[in-house]
């Protein structure tokens, strides 16, 4: 009962897809993803629109569904990324009900699907995790290290976030779910942390804590005057530029003496 209550406070899925990529002028393909425990997930493959920088698996946040991330895809494909955007179980057209372990399994299924796409270069696969998706993307990165991991407005863990938003809940009943800050020291991939300095959902201090706990190579970019839900809408082109510049830096050949 406690777990069900906490899940209701953590996951806010929507079944209604309000926008599809073609509405933004993007060419895409519908994908059907099968998880290891038999759930059927829905996703989109959206090809990059400029010279290719790589392929990006996008793990979205805890609310809405893929239809709320079309702008994400438009910005990233304009920057040269193929994007695989998928819904966790219980979101959009995906079967099942959301859970922590389920979201990890869903990301593994999405990665398998990404690697099956034509012309994918294994050495240029990146993960982007948005908010709760940051914990999901990190779990995947620990098992299958990418060319780089981007954490966008990510939190340190459910316990720390619950203390902030639900201070009346006894700490003893809050599970140690999505413990990102405790696990990020195991990361063996370049890291980019993106956060707004006025994030009212996940404080900037949590983004900084993740950055400090992570091994290198790593980089952090803070967006001034922006919160949790207006980062993409207000600073989307700048955010995409930061990601593109970071990836280009990773792909630049080392300077020889």
Protein described:
The chain is α/β, with parallel strands linked by helices and 257 residues long. It has a single domain, classed as Rossmann fold (3-Layer(aba) Sandwich), CATH 3.40.50.
Multimeric state: single chain
* Spatial sequence of strands, sheet with the most strands: 2-3-6-4-7-8-9-10
Fraction of residues in H or I helices:
25-40%
Taking the sheet with the most strands, its summary is: 8 strands, mixed
User: Tell me, what is the CATH class?
Assistant: Alpha Beta
Distance between the termini: 63 Å
Q: Return the average pLDDT rounded to an integer.
A: 94
Tell me the total number of β-strands.
10
Order of helices and strands: HEEEEEHEHEHEHHEHEH
What's the structural blueprint in terms of helices and strands?
Elements: H1 2-10, E1 12-13, E2 28-34, E3 40-46, E4 54-59, E5 63-64, H2 70-78, E6 81-86, H3 100-115, E7 125-130, H4 132-143, E8 148-152, H5 158-165, H6 180-183, E9 191-196, H7 204-213, E10 218-223, H8 231-251
Parallel strand pairs: 1-5, 4-6, 4-7, 7-8, 8-9, 9-10
Antiparallel strand pairs: 2-3, 3-6
Helix pairs in contact: 2-8, 3-4
Briefly characterize the structure.
The chain is of the alpha/beta class. 35% of the residues lie in helices and 21% in strands. It has helices at residues 2-10, 70-78, 100-115, 132-143, 158-165, 180-183, 204-213, 231-251, and strands spanning 12-13, 28-34, 40-46, 54-59, 63-64, 81-86, 125-130, 148-152, 191-196, 218-223.
């Amino acid at each position: 009962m406690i777990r069900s209550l906490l899940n209701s406070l953590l996951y806010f899925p929507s079944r209604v897809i309000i926008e599809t990529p073609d509405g933004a002028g993007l060419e895409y393909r519908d994908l059907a993803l099968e998880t290891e425990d038999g759930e059927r997930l829905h996703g989109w493959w959206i090809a990059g629109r400029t010279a290719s920088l790589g392929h990006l698996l996008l793990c979205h946040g805890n609310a809405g569904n893929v239809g709320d991330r079309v702008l994400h895809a438009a910005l990233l494909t304009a920057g040269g990324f193929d994007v695989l955007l998928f819904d966790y179980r219980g979101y959009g057209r995906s079967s099942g009900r959301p859970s922590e372990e389920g979201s990890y399994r869903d990301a593994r299924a999405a990665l398998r699907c990404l690697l099956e796409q034509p012309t994918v270069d294994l050495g240029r696969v990146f993960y982007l995790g948005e908010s709760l998706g940051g914990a999901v993307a990190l779990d995947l990165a620990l098992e299958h290290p990418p060319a780089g991991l981007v954490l966008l407005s990510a939190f340190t863990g459910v316990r720390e976030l619950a203390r902030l938003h639900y201070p009346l809940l006894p700490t003893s009943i809050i599970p140690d779910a999505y413990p990102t800050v405790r696990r990020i020291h195991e990361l063996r991939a370049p890291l980019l942390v993106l956060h707004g300095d006025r994030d009212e959902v996940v404080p900037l201090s949590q983004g900084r804590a993740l950055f400090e706990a992570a091994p290198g190579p790593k980089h952090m970019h803070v967006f001034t005057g922006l919160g949790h839900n207006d980062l993409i809408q207000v600073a989307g082109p700048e955010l995409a530029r930061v990601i593109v510049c970071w990836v280009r830096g990773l792909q630049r050949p080392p300077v020889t003496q």
